[in-house]
Design a protein that fits this description.
By secondary structure, the chain is an all-alpha fold. Helices cover 78% and strands 0% of the residues. It has a domain of 231 residues: MetI-like fold (Orthogonal Bundle), CATH 1.10.3720.10.
Length: 356
């Protein structure tokens, strides 16, 4: 007795439809590509024709209707604006103690650091920074760094440069203190990584001017809101690359360290962080550069430094004033970038591990 092994009708039909679909879109041949381009052109031409016909049907001076114009009653932007403003007002009033504490911590870090840089003799700062650049990058770059300081001195920008450096380094320290622990936790938890990823994407996508608004509302004018806005703008790279560095540590090395009886803290501090340090330092480099990029914008809310000169040059239509300050910012960016890159290229070894 023969068995009927013919393909059932529904399967034949689905196979036929699948074959047609592959012919239209998926078999990768030149014919299918030409067909896809033809369909795209036809659809685009159809949309254009519909739009032209709708516009032609509207007489001059008449309301086009919802087919072309958005109805005015759909505009709810002002209502959203009022809700956001009320929320910010509530946050400023109710969180006064919290934001006051943050203000005190930031100003307690920034002001002594700025005063210390301004108190040091100019020639000592120039020699120390030149020596660091020489040891980190090379002799000729150290000499170039000294030449940059000579430019600051003869252009009358030395004090403003030290103020800018204080803001950038204070912001960088805060980014490291907050961002590295977050990045470590993200590197160990997939759920946390997936949670903060869209937040970091949004922080890196928003225009830099947007960060000035909450900083100004919550901290007022001055250097503190400048530092906070800079931190918000510059912290995503250190978080992302710290998480990436922790995840890139070889699992076999981690298992070997665990087999020797290391604790979680020893594993983190003596195995994972040292191996991830080049990637973390690359994130630090990006954070420093992004912090320096906020210098000019931060001057709009009262931050002192080279950004004020650039802003004054724009406001008073003095291109020379803005140009020499802009060149000074470029020189500072070159030094910070090359030195931080040199430290990032150094490959640290594993710290000795003691089981305890």
């Amino acid at each position: 007795m023969k068995q009927d092994i013919s393909t059932p009708a529904p399967l034949e039909e689905s196979g036929r439809l699948l074959q047609m679909w592959h012919r239209l879109t998926g078999n990768g041949t030149g014919r299918s590509r030409a067909l896809k381009w033809s369909l795209a052109i036809i659809l685009t031409a159809g949309f254009i024709a519909i739009s032209v016909s709708l516009h032609s049907a509207v007489k001059p001076g008449e309301f086009a209707g919802p087919a072309l114009d958005i109805p005015r009653e759909w505009d709810k932007g002002w209502d959203v604006i009022k809700v956001i403003d009320k929320g910010v007002d509530w946050l400023v009033i109710e969180g006064d103690a919290f934001f006051g504490a943050i203000h005190a911590v930031v100003i307690g870090m920034l002001r002594p650091f700025r005063d210390f840089l301004l108190w040091l003799p100019w020639w000592l700062v120039m020699l120390v920074v030149g020596l660091i650049s020489w040891r980190a990058v090379g002799f000729w770059f150290g000499a170039l760094t000294v030449a940059f300081f000579v430019y600051y001195i003869f252009m009358g920008l030395y004090d403003l440069s030290m103020m800018t450096l204080a803001i950038v380094l204070t912001s960088t320290v805060l980014c490291v203190v907050v961002g590295v622990p977050i990045g470590i936790f993200a590197g160990k938890s997939d759920r946390f990584e997936n949670t903060i990823r869209p937040i970091l994407d949004m922080m890196q996508t928003l225009p830099s001017f947007v960060y000035l608004i909450p900083a100004l509302m919550l901290f007022g004018l001055g250097m503190v809101p400048a530092v906070m806005a800079t931190c918000i703008y510059a912290i995503p790279p250190i978080i992302r690359l710290t998480s990436l560095g922790i995840r890139q540590v070889d699992a076999r090395v981690v298992e070997a360290a665990r087999s020797f009886g290391t604790t979680t803290w020893q594993l983190l501090t003596r195995v994972q962080i040292p191996l991830a340090m080049p990637t973390i330092m690359a994130g630090l480099n990006q954070t420093v550069m992004m912090a320096l990029a906020m210098v000019v914008l931060a001057s709009m809310i009262g931050a002192s430094g080279l950004g004020v000169e650039v802003l004054n040059g724009i406001a008073r239509v003095e291109p020379g004033r803005g140009f020499i300050a802009g060149i000074a910012i470029v020189f500072m960016a070159i030094v910070l970038d090359r030195v931080s890159q040199a430290f990032a290229r150094r490959q640290p070894g594993l710290a000795p591990v003691r089981a305890g």
